[in-house]
Structure formats: C-alpha cells, structure tokens
C-alpha cells in the first residue's frame, strides 16, 4: 500500500518529495511542532492553505500531533492521499499505519495495529 499510494508523493523511502513532507526516518512525523526553521523542499498548495486557514481556530497548529497510531490513522484516513482518499478502505489505511510504525522502529503487536489497540501504540520519533 505504501509503494502504491504513498511513495508517489512522499518518496520510495518516505523521504518527502516536492510538496510532501518526509514520513519515514529521522525527523519524520514529529509529535508537535514541526521545526520549520531549517530548509524545506515543500511546495505549499494555495488551495490547501486556504482550507486550513478557514477551518482551524486562530492560533491553532496546522495539524494535531502524532502521538500514537490512532492519531496517524485519523490524519491519513481523512487527508491522504489527497487525490484518492475516497477510494481507499480502512484496511488500506491500517496497512499503511502498520508499515510506517514498523519502519520507524515502533512495536507492532501480533495481529497488527487496528482500531482496538491503535491508541496504545506510540509513534516512534527516531
């Protein structure tokens, strides 16, 4: 699922490509806030910026923190991939969450991460 749905924007190794942030490796999926002081290759979509500005309370961060697998699932299942989000199933999103947590060095329980246990699975920040 990652290779099919995520890599085209986030890179084969999750390193981030033009307009999409890194989602694997050091510095990926920060709890909050993301350090924006360094160089970035992200190109912002003006329409997406407008939507974010209009839907977030004044002074609120652009997204909620990724503290656990449920936070990651909630964000990805509501926002990613931008062009195909309506096509993917819950199983697709859980597969991606399992992959990301495992690659980041997190502990994936036997049977995988799912709605019943996702809130108890922390997002590792290597």
Quick synopsis:
The chain is an all-alpha fold and 126 residues long.
Describe this structure in words.
By secondary structure, the protein is mainly alpha-helical. The protein has one domain. The chain has helices spanning 2-10, 46-55, 69-79, 90-103. Residues 33-43 have low confidence and may be disordered.
Radius of gyration, whole Å: 14 Å
Following the backbone from N to C, one meets helices and strands in this order, namely: HHHH
Tally of individual helices: 4
Principal-axes geometry comes out as: globular
What percentage of the residues does DSSP assign to strands (E)? under 5%
Q: What is the rounded distance between the termini? A: 23 Å
Count structural domains. 1
- Helix residue percentage: 25-40%
Low-confidence stretches: 33-43
Structural classification: mainly alpha
Main β sheet profile: none
Number of strands: 0
Mean pLDDT across all amino acids: 78
From the structure above, extract its key features.
single chain
Please describe the topology of this protein.
Elements lengths: L1 H9 L35 H10 L13 H11 L10 H14 L23
């Amino acid at each position: 699922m990652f290779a099919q749905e995520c890599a085209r924007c986030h890179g084969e190794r999750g390193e981030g490509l033009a307009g999409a942030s890194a989602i694997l490796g050091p510095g990926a999926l920060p709890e909050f806030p993301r350090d924006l002081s360094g160089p970035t290759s992200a190109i912002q979509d003006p329409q997406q910026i407008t939507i974010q500005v209009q839907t977030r309370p004044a002074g609120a961060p652009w997204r909620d923190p990724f503290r656990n697998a449920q936070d990651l699932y909630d964000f990805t299942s509501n926002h990613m991939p931008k062009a195909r989000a309506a096509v993917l199933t819950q199983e697709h999103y859980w597969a991606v969450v399992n992959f990301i947590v495992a690659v980041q060095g997190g502990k994936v329980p036997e049977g995988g991460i799912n709605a019943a246990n996702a809130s108890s699975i922390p997002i590792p920040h290597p």
